Fold:
Amino acid sequence: MNKIKKLGRIAALCAFLSVSFAALADDIQDANKLFKQGLHAQAMEKVNTVLASKPKDAQARFLKGLIQTEQGNMADAIATFTGLTEDYPELPEPYNNLAVIYAGQGQYEKAKVALEMAIRTHPTYATAHENLGDIYAKMASQAYDRALQLEKSNTGTQTKLALIRELFGDNPKSARGAKTTVVVAAVEPTAASTPAATVAVAKKPEPAADDPAAEVVKTIQAWAAAWSAKDSKKYLSFYAKEFKTPDGLSRSAWETQRKQRIAAPKSIKVEVRDAKVKLADASHATISFRQSYRASHLNSMSGKLLDMVKTDGQWRIAADHSGK
Amino acid sequence: MRNATSLLLAAALAFPAQAETPSRDLELALAKSLQAVSNNRLDVALNEVDSLLKLNPNFKLAQLVRGDLLLARSKPISNFGDAPNAPRERVQDLREEANARLQRVQQQQPIAVPKYLWQLSPKQRYAVVVDTSKSTLYLYENVKGEPRYVADFYISVGKKGADKLAEGDQKTPLGVYFVNQHLTRDKLTDFYGSGAYPISYPNEWDKRLGRDGHGIWLHGTPSDTYSRPPLASNGCVVLNNDDLTHLGSHLQVGVTPVIITRKMDWMADSDLGERDALLKAIEQWRNDWASRDTESYLSHYAGDFSTGAVTLPAFAQQKRLVNSGKTWIKVRVSDLSVFPYPNQPDMAVVNFEQDYESNNLSNRMHKRQYWMKRDGRWQIVYEGAA
Structure:
């Protein structure tokens, strides 16, 4: 089960709900906003405030489930989404998200049942169909392994897994019928398209030392490596002094938050793909790339656009224009 | 999937009633699943295969079918065993198992008696006949001398098929054998599953033809394997563990015949005539011996007769010498069994208890003879203690 889709779907569902429920409390909107900014603790606080007065509120509970999922509290998230399926059996999204969580835990039978429920409530729910297809492929692969005693370590299996990954890959997603536009817009915003004069260097294995574009790419790869190594000190060292922290947070508050988010998952793997660098001058550049983020409980693929500045002979991140 | 299984389901499937064993139920469930596939009822097919796998998750063929059925929900598939990068020969093995099991399911329960059971002795409570081409072992009960069908089981035989000639040729021997040992699970590695019953390959005839090799057993499957493909062993006959245990409860060490043939054949009227001719010849042999008519007695032995290293001239000389010292001889034959030999026309294996008394010597022995029909007359080509 590819996690790329999961995130997309979770975000999509969130967006869907936010347009489909007519009267929205400001608190919920705020919570949603915080959640999208990755401020899970704050978002959770807001959600809990809403739930204190409206304990049955579907949207608040749904958001709570999403936050719990993001925070890796799968048991809680399962409980939250299960509660929603009981109180609002007509909503397919909680079933779908339950399925995504179960699939992430390798519980394909449960995932399958949940998706079948989602489809029963909404027979044309494309996301659930698509996810169900993924689950079937995964279950088929398990059955084949048992039938043919495929060794986990052999290359055949690896190729097969790669195939499955591709099967589940970065296809454009669609969700419930008419809401497609909303959904797509709500999925990770992509980086602004880069001008034609960009220098594609990502594929050069050993960039020449005097190539500034290559230096920028190398820096970003080192930044991704530090992130993957969960070395938050090194990670933060890639941000320039003048880095514009998001959401008006102070530098120290932002750093604390980053440290927490880097520490939370058991493992992180960040990869930089399709990097393109545009040099403004010898010490200023922008880099755009696709960021693949895989952590213990969450995978995502997003477009990134960073301003880079070179001071003291070192490229650093001056601004992050992506995804906000 | 539809194309692939239509290959398997060449004939319309009908499931005749068969003896009820757990393995038979499983085989029927598998066949139903495949039939549902051919009817394009993939949901029914998956339910069927799911429920049988709940009972036996190590049924690899069913797992393969399940894989196909699940994958078919995710993308169109074109082949039986459409696993990406599946080892082709393993898929082929399972395809052959599917074929063999479907054929088995379509078989009528046999009402006729196997040709190979001309006569059972009262001590032989059961008899086993293996059909290597149909991947089937038949179990018969001796009901007052009449073989009665009890059950049949899916089996695997040698990787290279049947008619073993030599050590290491990975073939299952064809012939008349006897269970000669029981090895329990605790004496074996997991590979042999719930137990093993070594049989008497190479027998006297095999040795005479220079056939060698050893260690041909009926045995079970490893704990992670419900069943093996039709051609899988190094010559042994392999049953699933439940079936082996079930079969084992009927086997008598040193007594139960295991007749292995390439193709099952059924008793015909002509067999009854041949059997009676042979029984008559045996009685004549006994009578000629007891009446001390040595030349008539020796006329029952073929020119190429041998017993161990002793050939006819030496045997005849010794018999003439011995018989000349007798004033009286009594020979009683009991517990007689007669099994025509598969793959060797006009030959039969004869076993009996021989109670020999004479003026100067008496003994009892279990004797085995191989009789061959030459020029219209049954003659002994081998004889010895069994």
